[in-house]
Design goal:
inorganic pyrophosphatase (n-terminal core), Diaminopimelate Epimerase, Chain A, domain 1, 2 domains, six-stranded parallel β-sheet, six-stranded mixed β-sheet, 17% strand
């Protein structure tokens, strides 16, 4: 059932061995929420396991003290867990390795801030706390901890700060509001050093990522009279740069530096041939609606989807749809 934050702690106190997961290709909010919640559960006397469906992106190794487990060995002992916590998603398409086991999963708690959702966490005994007005899932975890009077160690505070800051574009995106700053103020008071975290996150890139960004920007294409920036990454680009897909986070935002651009689309080819589509908008285009048409979802200003088929055909179809909407939609700021 859908619930409020005050119901979460009594529900958790009945558990001892919870399993924590988030969406595939975890970003800073997913990882910060997992690490922060894991630390809070340990402080409550539980033994949480945090499982990732993909490899931990190198930049998030800064989340010290968090033990990350791979999904494959964890899935073999799925029945040993007495609770399942799903953070930063409520979408079955983002939980593919787990989705067939959800019906038989232990009591499930979903904490999320996305508008796109499936019937996850709706069984008897389940809980889900969804607040689409929150700038980040980590914000919801931080507010819950504050409301429950749970102490924040510097490591927990840092993890939650990373989740909030990365989902807000280091506080430059439109989802940054007074509520966000109130939460991060409390996290800084708990020992977070924003300057140190920024340096570790954004000023320690490996050379292959810089080369990948260079290839991306060299081939950038402006469409719809400059309203749409289109960027593409094929497997040949990854190989030439010596990069992997963990290095694509935030690359979709590179084109937002250009004046006049309302929307950005990044198409990335995975090793298995599937195409990941990342969409961003600046002021008025609802990219979540576009992503939903493709079987994905997200926020009005940040969304994504995956597609199969010929790469250039998929790109052409999605770009045509974006151009249609950009030319037809009334513009407001």
């Amino acid at each position: 059932m859908t619930t409020g934050p005050t119901d979460i702690l009594p529900w958790l106190r009945k558990r001892r061995a919870p399993l924590l997961v988030s969406h595939q290709r975890p970003d800073g909010d997913a990882l910060g929420s997992l690490a922060g919640m894991g630390g809070l559960l340990r402080a409550l006397g539980m033994s949480p396991t945090i499982a990732l469906f993909d490899a931990l992106p190198p930049r998030y190794r800064l989340l010290a003290g968090t033990e990350w487990s791979s999904w494959e060995p964890v899935s073999a002992r799925f029945d040993a867990f007495d609770a399942l916590l799903i953070l930063d998603t409520c979408s079955a398409s983002q939980l593919e390795p787990l989705v067939t086991r959800l019906a038989a999963a232990p009591p499930t708690l979903v904490i999320d801030h996305h508008a796109t959702r499936d019937e996850i966490g709706t069984r008897a005994g389940d809980l889900r706390f969804i607040d689409v007005s929150a700038s980040a899932c980590a914000l919801l975890v931080a507010e819950w901890a504050d409301g429950a009077a749970l102490p924040l160690t510097p490591a927990i505070a840092a993890a939650l700060f990373v989740g909030i800051a990365t989902d807000c574009g280091w506080f430059r995106f439109s989802n940054t509001d007074a509520r966000t700053f109130q939460a991060v103020s409390r996290l800084v008071s708990a020992g977070v050093r924003p300057d140190a975290l920024y340096q570790q996150l954004y000023q320690c890139d490996p050379l292959p990522r810089a080369r990948l960004a260079g290839r991306l920007l060299t081939a950038l294409d402006l469409r719809a009279s400059g309203l749409l920036a289109v960027m593409k990454l094929r497997q040949s680009d990854f190989a030439a740069a010596g990069a992997d897909r963990t290095m694509t986070e935030d690359l979709v935002n590179e084109a937002a530096r250009l004046g006049g651009v309302e929307a950005t689309a990044l198409f990335s080819e995975d090793p298995d041939g599937r195409i990941r589509i990342n969409l961003r908008s600046r002021n008025w285009l609802d990219v979540a609606a576009v992503a939903a048409e493709l079987g994905g979802g997200g926020h009005a200003r940040a969304a994504g989807a995956r597609a199969t088929g010929d790469f250039e055909t998929v790109v052409a179809q999605v770009v045509a749809r974006l151009e249609q909407l950009l030319r037809a939609a009334p513009r407001s700021t």
